[in-house]
Amino acid sequence: MKILLTNDDGIDAVGIRTLYDRLSAVADVTAVAPADDQSSVGRQLSRTVELTEHEMGYAVEGTPSDCVVAALGSLDFDPDMVVSGINQGANLGAYVLGRSGTVSAAVEASFFDVPAIAASVYFPAGEFTFEELSASPEHFEEAARSIKYLVEHAPNVDVFETADYLNVNAPVSSDGDASMEITRPSHVYRMDAESNGDGTVRIHDRIWELMAEGSVPDPVGSDRRAVLEGRVSVSPLTAPHTTTDHEALSGLAEAY
């Protein structure tokens, strides 16, 4: 099996190296990943990018989506799957999907009709200070174990016949005994903003505060609740935006 590996934390991040080592035991892995941190850039694309050889593949002066397009469009490489991650930080909730560079790389792959998996780790806010977090391979072991399992088994049971990509979020390594739950992205939204009185506005994502308290209002079956309770969350998703018949809108179009 041939795997294209990318991320948004940069090619020298601990998470992608951990996943590269784990997947190399079962597949031919080539990394094509950003040269530096490209977190939260969504599906941003560049006009031109520069590729530099790296021991795991290629470092790209660009975004995660740049990496996928450059690899699938210009390199002599036809992977069976694209894996993006492991991200240092969770990508949970419907409102996060479009922001995440990690998830966006998987979405980009799906438009090339290549199955994809996005992988992230939740670091509990009550235990880790994100700005001071010094991640080690041990933090990513549960995520790496779950991704290796899905890479080996999901194609054999036609998972990607109905899902374009999987968004996987794992707790920090839990001695290899975490269970896996099929989830849906939570629709709970707690963004707000506060004026500082000097012309600037501070934007808050209150979800992280709730998660630190262990009191998220997300329903059973949602990605955020599964991870908060120590399970590996797997959300099977489709990439294109869906459209539906809309009688009222059709009436407006006819009257225009």
TrEMBL record:
Gene that this sequence comes from: surE
GO cellular component: cytoplasm
Stretches the record annotates as Disordered: 236-256
Family membership noted in the UniProt record: Belongs to the SurE nucleotidase family.
Top-level taxon of the source organism: Archaea
Enzyme class: hydrolase
UniProt signal peptide: none
PANTHER family listed in its UniProt record: 5'-NUCLEOTIDASE SURE, PHOSPHATASE, PUTATIVE (AFU_ORTHOLOGUE AFUA_4G01070)-RELATED
Listed name of the protein: 5'-nucleotidase SurE
